[in-house]
Design a protein that fits this description.
The chain is globular. The protein has eight helices and five strands; from the N terminus they run E-H-E-H-H-E-H-E-H-H-H-E-H. The protein has one domain: P-loop containing nucleotide triphosphate hydrolases (Rossmann fold, 3-Layer(aba) Sandwich). Helices cover 48% and strands 15% of the residues. It starts with a strand and ends in a 10-residue tail after the last helix.
Length: 182
Amino acid sequence: MKLIFLHGPPASGKYSIAQGLNESWNVLNFHNHLTIDVAKALFEFGTPEFWDLTHRLRRLALGAKAPDPEASVVFTNCYSSPDDDANVLALEEEVIRGGGDFLPVYLQCDVEELRRRVVDPSRASMRKLHTTKGLEDFLSRWNCVPLDRHNCVTVSTGGKGVADCVEEIARRLSLDRPKAAT
């Protein structure tokens, strides 16, 4: 499996680009809210039990898919250094142990563009951060930077459409063109 670890601040385009990779390149979209929603059904958001379950679910699910040599999966994440380093490393090791490749991609976007995007109604409907105040609080607390890996690719999403970002990621990661339907 190729795991595309798509990370960046809120509203940088992670979910939209993951959907674009899914639709244009047949990359499976395992976005971070899938595990967050499961954990929120059982534990209060942000508690140690909540985060423990969230991270275990991610490792379990992606580790189970890692041995599939035909699979490409995109996983979205608001990675913050150094707070998330241990969990990202554990996920990376799980994928590599299963024979997969870990391909980090950082989405870079200026703060003014993030402010413009964060209030889009689609974010509220998905229960994502959706206010400028929430964004400011998030950015002041967390250090959203590119993952410190030699193979981390940075893609600037400001002023670009989703399709352009998807094509850039596919080209820079040398993704195989999807097979035509028969």
